[in-house]
Amino acid sequence: MWDWIGSNASALNVGLNAAMLLIWLAYLQLFFVSFRRSNRTVIHIGMASESGEDARCLVTNMGSDTAYVLAVMVGLDDGDRTRLAPVTDRVEDEDPVGGDFRDKTNQGPLRGGEALDIGSLRNIVSRAAHQIEEDISLDDCRAVEITVVVAAQQAHRLAGGRKRYEIDCSGGRMRFRPQNVLTDQIRTRRDRQALLSRMNA
Question: Please, are residues 110 and 150 in contact by the beta-carbon 8 Å criterion?
């Protein structure tokens, strides 16, 4: 056996080196995937305080890196069509900008693990109606879809989240039921291009 090993030492050495290379490549791949996951931007959209029209809409950056909120858009579905409007700025407050800029706009940096209150559903729909210059309220809608657009990875990539809430008025009280508990993440190239088109419209 030792004679066979000695006569085939060169071939065995090449095989062992190739196996070691494969192991290191597997480790590097695992490290790269873990690094990408830990630095991926994840936006969560949720409701707080209650489930009615005065519920507060919270946007949370679930990633580890800071993301910059570029825009908040809302889609109002009345059953016939969906009206899309930006609701980034708080148009219900007409005072001049001063003090903390976050009192006037939802735009700005959002650190990892930080949550941003973008207003009540009543105020969000009011902003949308102001932007599209139409007399529309929650009573006219069957569903509301909220989309948050962020600049991630040191503003090198567009990302975001989207959540749709169906409006349930049974029992004489308006309630918002999410279509999905989790927030749909906007990551694909096609989705990012669609967001850019909406923002530039």
Answer: yes
| DSSP 8-class letter at 71 | E
The pLDDT tens digits for 109-129 are: 999 889 999 988 888 888 888
pLDDT of residue 2: 60
- In angstroms, the CA 78 to CA 143 distance is 7
Instruction: Say how far apart CA 137 and CA 16 lie, in whole Å.
Output: 71
Cβ-contact 103, 116 below 8 angstroms: no
Contacts of 152 (CB under 8 A, 6+ apart): 41, 63, 65, 67, 68, 158, 159
pLDDT band at 146 (very low <50, low <70, confident <90, very high): very high
Separation CA 55–CA 121 (nearest Å): 6
Return all residues near 167 (Cβ < 8 A) that are at least 6 apart.
138, 141, 142, 143, 144, 174, 175, 176, 177
Q: Tokens 């409007």 appear where? A: 85
